Amino acid sequence: MELDDRGVYLLSHLGYHVADRFAHDLAPLGLQPAQFGVLTHLARSDGRSQQELADQLGVHRNAMVGIVDALEGRGYVRRARHPLDRRAHAVHLTESGRTALDAARAVADELEASVLTPLDAAEQASLIAMLHRLVDHAGLPPGVHPALRTRLPRV
Amino acid sequence: MELDDRGVYLLSHLGYHVADRFAHDLAPLGLQPAQFGVLTHLARSDGRSQQELADQLGVHRNAMVGIVDALEGRGYVRRARHPLDRRAHAVHLTESGRTALDAARAVADELEASVLTPLDAAEQASLIAMLHRLVDHAGLPPGVHPALRTRLPRV
DNA sequence: TATTGTTATACTCTATAACTATA
DNA sequence: TATAGTTATAGAGTATAACAATA
Description:
2 copies of one chain form a homodimer.
Chain A: H1 7-26, H2 33-44, H3 50-57, H4 61-73, E1 77-81, E2 89-93, H5 95-116, H6 121-138
Antiparallel strand pairs in A: 1-2
Helix pairs in contact in A: 1-5, 2-5, 3-4
Chain A binds a DNA duplex (23 and 23 nucleotides) through helix 4.
């Protein structure tokens, strides 16, 4: 049995490749995958505290400081007073953050199309459905995974 | 479009998870993924130099020193004089190295079965065939991928 | 002059702890 | 006493450079 015939090998190989390409394609927008993750969460529910964001992304709150710093430095989010807890910051998506998120999503769509090119529409749907079942079975929490944790594109 | 519906997201999420579990399951054998990779290559063609092994695994020769050190320390390989080049070492798989490799392959088989449990035999074959096509299309070199580069199981 | 294996160094990342201000 | 955010520190991991032996 060759390495390349194992599903686990193919999955991890392809998974790393895709995560790597995503980080690389995202770089021109000044975004890292983890930062994209934060923008995504904020788009669904704005004004989260850093601790909440950290929990949702599966990172430590210490690391979230730097992520929010970077996003704020680019004007993609702003820290505001939290209405219920004066210890916490309410992190808000700005207009340019919204624009950046849309651009990042376009990058993800292009990558998706590029990676899945060899499959026709029915095959793509079938693949995604099967991957979904595997993810569910593995008990992986939605929206949180190690590739989003850090990772700069290597030059 | 939710994150979880993207193929690229599912692929990277699952890929990282599988690589992580493999490293974890391999640890009791005293092997890291990269070391498993070296044993696999030696099983196919014994007596390679460290430089050749480094090329095949996609790591730097400096890093191969430590990998071979670890394998030699456990008695899984031995460094011998290279018949053609006195600068180089010929790395040979030992009997216990062969045993360890077989055990590691069993670990990989168990992981494969565990991960793919939700799919019936036909679906598994279909998934693997599609992944194969995606890997080929992405131009990923066989037998070399980042997850095999290092990675200790996190406690 | 280039290459193999090796070692040492520097750099990056990550994880932990510690501090403050609130609760 | 516990928690949110922050900062500093230490530890691990990785990459780069430099060296001796040989080609």
